[in-house]
Amino acid sequence: MARSLRQRFEDWVTRGQRPSHVPIPLTRRRIYILPTRYGYAFAVLLFVLFLWSVNYSNSMGFAFTFLLAAVALNSMWRTHDNLLGLVVHPGSAEAVFAGQEARFGYRLENPGSTPRYGVGVQWQDQPPQYVDVPARGSAVVTLAIPAQRRGWLRPGRIRILTRFPLGLLQSWSWVAFEQSVLVYPCPRGQRPLPALQTGGSGGGVGEQNLGSEDYAGFRPYAPGDSPRRIAWKAATHTEQWQVKRFTDQARPELWLDWRLLGIDNVEPRLEQLCQWVLKAESDGLQYGLWVPGQRIEPAHGDSQRRRCLEALALFGEGGR
Amino acid sequence: MIATIGGWVGGRRRKKTAGPPAELLSASALTWLLTTLLLAVAPRIGELPVWLTLLFVVGVGWRGWIAFRNKSLPSRWLVLSLGLLAAAGVLIDYRTLLGRDAGMALLAAMTACKPLETRSQRDGVVLVFLGYLLVMGNLLYSQDIPMVAYLLAVLLVMLASQVMIYRQHAGLTAFAPLRLAVKMVVQAIPVMLILFVLFPRIPGPLWSLPRDAYQGRTGLSDEMMPGTVSQLSKTDEVAFRVRFVGDMPRANQLYWRGPVLWDFDGRRWARIDELPARPPAGLIPEGAALDYSVMLEPSNRRWLLALDMPASPPPRAIMTASFQILRDRPVNEVYRYEMRSYPQYRTGPLNEFQRSRALRLPESGNSRARALAAEWQARDSHPEALVNAALALFHDQDFRYTLTPPLLGGDSVDDFLFRTRQGFCEHYASAFVFLMRAAGVPARVVTGYLGGEPNQVGHYLIVRQADAHAWAEVWLPERGWVRIDPTAAVAPMRIQEGLYAAVTDPQTLPFLVRRGGDSEWLRQLAMAWDSFNNAWNEWVLAYGPDRQKEFLSGLGFGPVDWGEMTVAMTVTLAGLGLIVVGLRWRAGLVRQPVVRAWSRCCARLARRGLARGPHEGPLAYAARVAASRPELAEPLGEIARRYAALRYGPEAAPAEVRQLQRLVRQFRA
User: Fold this and answer.
1) Which residues numbered 291-350 in B keep a CB inside 8 Å of some CB on A?
2) pLDDT at B241 over 80
3) 3-state secondary structure of B446
4) Under 8 Å between Cβ of B271 and B357
5) For residue B273, what is the DSSP state?
6) Secondary structure letter of residue B217 according to DSSP
7) Helix (H, G, I), strand (E, B), or coil: what is residue A141?
8) Is B485 a catalytic residue?
9) Cα–Cα distance, B196 to B537 (Å, whole number)
10) Chain B hits for A64, Cβ within 8 Å
11) Which of A9, A138, B534, B630 is buried most, with the most CB atoms less than 10 Å from its CB?
12) Dihedral class, residue A114 (left if φ above 0, else alpha if ψ from -120 to 50, else beta)
């Protein structure tokens, strides 16, 4: 409850801010400052020192107490200025599997002439990552954000904070970027790869004996056929596009088919398919993917793997 | 208070398992911290019990060794039991945990143990806070300039350590935290001064202090035995300093009146508790008044010193029937007060109680002195004749004035008058008053200080403990109480030229009380230093509730109360704040590259006679310029549009700002 209240408060404070595409400079209006618990403890300490001075009529005690109070005030201004003028640049992140951590890099640029020490970047309740930002330089902070579910992961609001120099106060600023990373389903499942088919169809959808090695004549084009197989030369002569047929005896292909899995829930199905994709790729097989609404022709290699994983990640979300 | 701190320090231990892992303290931060703590305890090393000093060195050294060798910390139970043992040790040594000395020892004990369980930043903060308390504790022992300078240096190192706790990354070089600490303290000084001058001072203490709070203060006591005053003559500590309005009076008028002693038990003279004189003591001035202010060093006694005879007490003090000034509480800070005295005076009649008290002697003892007094009385019972007879005795017989008199037996007065005949002022005063009372003249002993040394640098008078003196007062029917200094009959130089000239054995005197000789230049230097100290006392240490009111009233605001002071303080602080904010705002505007680029562009146009009016916004200005210089319409329009968007629109991207700057650079009017 407390946490959701805090979240709601943060939402309310940052209600005017849209996620940004461009780097965000930290201006006065964005920077907040409050004492830390050491700050409150310090206030108690000052009060004790003050009472002590009164009780012993100690003139230098007063001076010492007042000097400490003035230094604390001074540190308030310094803590605030330690963030002021910093420019936060969003970084890109690489796709990950659900259950892993997405690593977002943020670059802090310091256009000013004073170095900034101990600047932290924090996502939600994770411990902040601290860096020093040199004068007229920049520093990169990488946040590891847990990717819990497949689909697009948007880190949203992050907090830039500092307690420098005395730790008595913390100043911070919330920034949000239009920034996302794709999370693939978690590769999970015990089922062995389905049986290889030589020229097999994706569960009867395709044609027999299809391969890419040996030419075996033409057939009419059907939606879903790979453009690479269209006989472009022949297409100039006829109304009907023709698709080249190959037989591929040597390299049988594998259809990773949604319908082969008799699992009730969507997510375990996707997880199993994901695991199959990785297995097929590492086994060096030609593999294709069929899920409701999408069919990926058999192929092999990084781009095939990515295409399949993206399809799985975005299943049911209607793309981006 | 110490107990609360102990609970707080200990309490952290229990919470450690909860919450996210506390960030660890870096080795460099730890080094800074340990150094700071050693520096903060150093001034007290001589006074703390030896075992505690050892514990401190071992604790800090052990922790340093652990950090250096990368060993693991001792178990929490070991540290806890060590802490409890140390507290028990303090309790046994001091028989309390409260008060200044025991509190300081307990603080040192905690500071010795705490590093052994210090691993996180939080522990580091606790150590720094303990360090601040140690600095404060040191101030309760001494507020001298050298000590304050030292503690200021310790404070700087402490702030640097606190910076280091949060600055774990490699960025800062070794002395950067120290430089930062110096900067912060320098910038903090104006605020500190405002608070120091204007924060309403509350007269302390708020609750009664443990008895040891002000131990070890030398000074007059409220009783006198042979040896009490001469003991004081061995120390050249300053008792008080005096600044006169107008000329300094002659040396033989500088009798600084302290405790007045009435009761004699055969050996000891003692004060009696007196209520304020009602009606006021009955001083009849016979001459010009002397106005002066006194800066009294802490004495832990209530009495305030004043020249014979004080006219009225300063605020928060009373004057007794013996013309003794008593403050409402002991003087434990440098206390400044203003006085008026009349060197020529008469006093009023003596009441029956006072007369009987001023004639009272022990039932028996000192029979030879009594016999001598009776003999004088039989010869001439006129009081003045009796006084002269006693003075003649001291003057004509072979009495000697010395700091190191032989010990006296049971009948101390007889022994002194007829056997040893060597004594210091208290012997003469005591014997004189005894003789007077025995002869039927009301008399009493007055203790205080005589003389003082003018400081030519600062134009004030220094009175040292070595100037302590005792004299007598007799009551004469026509003149009231009259001061008689029997020491003058023996050693007139004491009154005219001070202690150094009077004693027959000057090498027993402390250095600063001696005169002449090879090291005179050193004493001159000491005088210059003392005048510096006096200014420090007068303007800084004596700045308490009374002085604050006086100072602020003196600025021309009339009498001020604490409410007005609070208002003045708030207004001054707010004013200072506004100045700082204003300066920063202006600097920020100039620093803002957008505004700077635009003003450069406007300046160029202004040189061509096309200055922007103060009312004109950027777009209106561009339109006006375009009307008279059509060839500028396009570039200026672009600049103005971009400026308006960047300045007044949502936050600007750095690339767009750079684009604006480029356009302005290329702009030729």
Assistant:
1) 332-334
2) yes
3) strand
4) no
5) -
6) -
7) strand
8) yes
9) 15
10) 135-136, 139, 151, 155
11) B534
12) beta
User: pLDDT per residue over B269-279, tens digit each?
Assistant: 988 877 666 66
Give A65's contacts in chain B (Cβ within 8 Å): 136
pLDDT of residue B652: 58
Is residue A130 within a helix (H) or strand (E), and if so which, with residue range?
strand A129-133
Please report, for residues B32, B250, B539, the alpha-carbon distance to residue B457 in angstroms, rounded to integers and kept in the order given: 42, 19, 17
Q: pTM for the full model?
A: 0.72
User: Where are chain A's structural domains?
Assistant: 2-184, 210-313
Give a three-class secondary structure readout of B617-658. CHHHHHHHHHHHCHHHHHHHHHHHHHHHHHHHCCCCCHHHHH
pLDDT of residue B582: 84
For B:164-203, CB contacts with A below 8 A are 165-172, 180, 184-185, 187-192, 195-196, 199, 201-203
Distance CA B242, CA A268 (A): 95
DSSP string, B57-68: HHHHHHHHHHHH
Tokens (6 digits) for B273: 């508790």
List A299's β-bridge partners, or say none: A287
For residue range B312-334, list pLDDT tens digits in order.
888 888 888 888 999 988 888 88
Q: How far apart are CA B323 and CA B274, in angstroms?
A: 10
φ, ψ for residue B437 (rounded to 5)?
Answer: -65, -40
Using CA atoms, how far apart are residues B338 and B538, in angstroms rounded to an integer? 12
May I ask the CATH class of domain A2-184?
A: mainly beta
Query: B450: part of which helix (H) or strand (E)?
Result: strand B443-450
**Residue of A162, A109, A131, A128 lying closest to B171 (CA atoms):** A131
Residue with tokens 């960030």: B23
Q: What is the DSSP string of B556-621?
A: II-S--HHHHHHHHHHHHHHHHHHHHHHHHHHHHHH-HHHHHHHHHHHHHHHTT-PPPTT--HHHH
